[in-house]
Predict the 3D structure of the following.
Amino acid sequence: MTDPITVSSPSEVLELDLDKCNGYGNCVFAAPEMFELDLASNVPILLKAEWSDGEREALAAAVADCPAGALRLRKRDALG
Ligand code: SF4
């Protein structure tokens, strides 16, 4: 089991769990400024370490559109 890849904004953390990801690419279509599909490995690459308020809606859509439940957006806690 691999730890999720995480990127953060000041208030939230996005987790990408590659153990669950099936490479459907929905996240790339929903938020192309945040995700790119690596064609060799068929898994998404996170393009940014942070996101702007304007990109938040597309990011939430990517999380909602992931059929594998591989993406999670959560509030940042004291541990990060
Ligand atoms: S939508 Fe989900 S399953 Fe599809 S590539 Fe993105 S993270 Fe992986």
Notes: The chain is about 20% helix and 30% strand. The pocket of iron/sulfur cluster is lined by residues 16, 21-27, 44, 66, 68, 70-71 (CB under 6 Å). The chain has one domain: 5-72. The domain at 5-72 is CATH 3.30.70.20 (Alpha-Beta Plaits).
